[in-house]
Amino acid sequence: MSNDQEFIPLSVPYIAGNEWKYVKDCLDTGWVSSVGSYVNQFEEDFAQVTKTSHAVACVNGTAALHIALVTCGVKPGDQVLVSNLTFIASANSISHAGATPVFIDAEPDYWQIDPAEIESYLRNECQFINGETIHKSTGQRVKAIMPVHILGNPVNMDPILTLAKEFNLAVIEDATESLGATYKGHPVGSLGDMAAFSFNGNKLITTGGGGMITTNNPELAQKAKHLTTTAKIEPIEFIHDEIGYNYRLVNLLAAVGVAQLEQLPEFLAKKQEITSWYTELLSDHPGIQLMPEPPYGTSARWLYTIRLLNNNWKSINEFLAGKKIQTRPLWQPMHLSPAYRTLNSRKCPISELLQNRCLSLPCSVNLSKSQAEQVAAQLKLAVNQVK
Ligand SMILES: Cc1ncc(COP(=O)(O)O)c(C=O)c1O
């Protein structure tokens, strides 16, 4: 490979549809702010894609999660069970609601939150009294579960939904990374009480920054919209019935979202094609385990992540960076994060193992086959040479 090798990024936006046209329309008409037809259209189109009855646009995915928690009745002092192997925003949204995240380890097969660990926590460390689940040692109420569908894969939801029913818990899906994935034929984001999506720059579709709440419950949808728009009940005199939030997505960004969503089928097909390239190029290597797709659903293949069987991610990441190939490890597991070190966390050995070994490879929608071939060739070289 020569030194003038082009840089191959991990995952960059693909802006090739009606984005310019719709943004120009906003600018030409002056409808740039928090009211406008694109916000409504983005919500309607998004509800259709996720097969939900309602969608509420938000400034970002973290805000969407925060509002979903508050809307589902999570109060300061409550506990919320959440994936330990996730981007910190999942946990932060729980903290923003004044609640305490309880970090649940991943399962080893598909790297998602482990329903058996949730069950063990609820049965062994909590008791069910008068319709509420109470954590025995702290006395805190457990109010919700937030399964995070990480990397484009779906969580195994049925056991979680069954436990939630038994222990009277809300289920808020963090679907920020998995738009387009399905669980037993149903889109992620349509399975729990509420769900949140993100449209930041590296997500499958982007609005620069943005988020969406989805739900099949009209009352929860109405409450969520109310809270995102400062809880205003009377527009002339500015009367607000509670302390709300200024979390509404602006029309200008929703215009980008409408255009991006139009291209979703194309983006998902491209992610499948990239997956088939890497499968073909890497599956014969004994040191690389390909990203597994669970039998209970379909993956959106948002990020293409491999597990190294004999190497830690860091040396391989450095080797590839030297070849102008950008790769990324998984997130520091939440139970090890300095931000959450004060919590008396449960042991999470699977998250630690996966974080040491997993690496996400370039998989932008516009990745070419020859770029995938370069990535695969250099990756194999690195795995063979670097210890
Ligand atoms: C798992 C997860 N949760 C929450 C978020 C928060 O989304 P946002 O960056 O739009 O606030 C992200 C993405 O950034 C994420 O990957």
Show the helix and strand layout.
Blueprint: H1 19-29, H2 37-49, E1 54-58, H3 61-71, E2 79-83, H4 89-96, E3 100-104, H5 115-125, E4 126-129, E5 132-135, E6 141-146, H6 157-166, E7 170-174, E8 182-183, E9 186-187, E10 194-198, E11 211-215, H7 218-228, E12 232-234, E13 239-240, H8 251-262, H9 264-282, E14 288-289, E15 297-298, E16 304-308, H10 313-322, E17 328-329, H11 349-357, E18 358-361, H12 369-385
Parallel strand pairs: 2-3, 2-6, 6-7, 7-10
Antiparallel strand pairs: 1-11, 4-5, 5-6, 8-9, 8-15, 10-11, 12-13, 14-16, 16-18, 17-18
Helix pairs in contact: 1-8, 2-8, 3-4, 3-7, 5-6, 9-12, 10-12
The chain binds pyridoxal-5'-phosphate (PLP).
Describe it for me?
- The two termini are 22 Å apart.
- This protein folds into two domains: 19-262, 3-Layer(aba) Sandwich (Aspartate Aminotransferase, domain 2), CATH 3.40.640; 264-385, Aspartate Aminotransferase, domain 1.
- Helices cover 37% and strands 18% of the residues.
- The protein is α+β, with helices and mostly antiparallel strands.
- The strands form four sheets. Strands 1, 2, 3, 4, 5, 6, 7, 10 and 11 form a nine-stranded mixed beta sheet that branches. It has a four-stranded antiparallel beta sheet with strand order 14-16-18-17. It has a three-stranded antiparallel beta sheet with strand order 9-8-15, with no helix packed on it.
- Pyridoxal-5'-phosphate (PLP) binds at residues 60-62, 86-87, 89-90, 148, 174, 176-177, 198, 200, 211.
